Amino acid sequence: YQFRKFAKRNKVLVGGVIAVMVVLIAGVIGTSIGMFQAQSEARKAGRMNEYLKGMIAFLDPSKTKGHDITLRQVLDDASRRVDSELTDEPEIAAELLQTISVGYEQLGVFDQAVLHSKRSLDLLGTLLDEDDPRLIDPWHHYGLQCFKANDIPMAEQALRRALDLNRRRAGGADSGVLTTIRELGHALQVQGKQDEIEPLIAEAMEASKRLPSDPRMAAQCLHTLGDILATQHRVVEAEATYQRALEMYRQIQADPVPGDYLVLLRDYATMLELFQRWPEAEVLGREAVELSQRQFGDEHEHTILSMNNLLASLRAQQKLDEAEGLARSVLTVSRKLYGEETNATTVALMNLGTIMRVRQAPGPALEMFRQVVERRRTPELSDELELAKALGGEGMSLLDLALAGEAEAPLRECLAIRERLQSVNHPSIMIVRNALGAALVEQGRYADAEPLLVSSWDVLRNVPASAGQVRSDCLARLVALYERWGRPEEAERFRSLIAR
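-> structure tokens emitted (500 positions)
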């Protein structure tokens, strides 16, 4: 009663005192929370430090007994130690498992990448609400790893989850939303779900009308939209979108050049390559290489990726001296940066083998393809589609060396993998069917060869005009089949098509 009477007579004084008390109490609470968070972070840092010390100890020469330790062994040990040392620290364990998964992914060990990424997601699920935006990146990354491991249905599920979370977070034009739409579109396309892709494209197009005010973010959004359109072969729209993104980046005039600008150059060039617009792709590819070398030097991932991108344009235009030199440079740098038994070096070896075969050096090409096949059969570098490419190269090199009997087995295995992974009338399948048919012709097995050669011609006759070598090879093999089989009328019919 006395306090109320005093407060009525001294409202200003009492109000000021209460305000000060509120500030002080809030400060004490904030300080207490800050101290608790600091203690928590310090404890986490301490546990992380112990874990890292263990990783370094694993590399102790006295324990490795002079043996070289591979990155795969380091990752395997790091995974075991998460299980044994961090069972009471799910937050730290989740972060480390995600990092370990990326390591396996970079080595091309996709089954282990998926396993560790899923374990990280499971732990995060116990720590975070299911709609927490911090789950966006883990779900997105898990989806990409499932895609690389050829578990496309699971990739679709994960990417849909990431997209749903991303939509709730962003609500409008956002590079994260568009990126997830792009990757989900890939997963749907591989499964032949074209009807489900169209709504995604419509969403992406609508989002592009509300671009962010940040020029770089806007350019990223357009870049991703261009990728989406390119995957659907909507070339005119994709090219216009890529051009807008390029203009935005060039207006920013950032120094150093943003890495995403280099990625845009490569993606745009890749689309042009898909439609055999090789000279235009070469211009973009050279710009990407020059910028990468100037900014990062020769021994950098961006430079290697840009060189590989340019390589395709040079090979297609028969600029084989430059292409071989570039391929050898990429292989040398990949060996130095990543080591011999790695995905990057294996890809570089495959590229060089392809160029050597085009240069009519089947002997060296065969040796390179066989090395790639051997590596792609290991758990560390397992990749079925890449294995199929190497088997195809091996079989065709054996054909070039007039070893048709030996060529049959790798070509049949290549065909079986491609028919399992790709659409029925995919041109790559038909090229292998055609080569296998040629191998059977050389063995005198004409009745077995005919359906392979005829069915492949029915598809390959419609490949783009710039791929004329593919068509002429196919026709020449049909002519050889019917001439040797004693059916001159059919041989003459296909011979007349070669001239046309």
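The mean pLDDT is 84.
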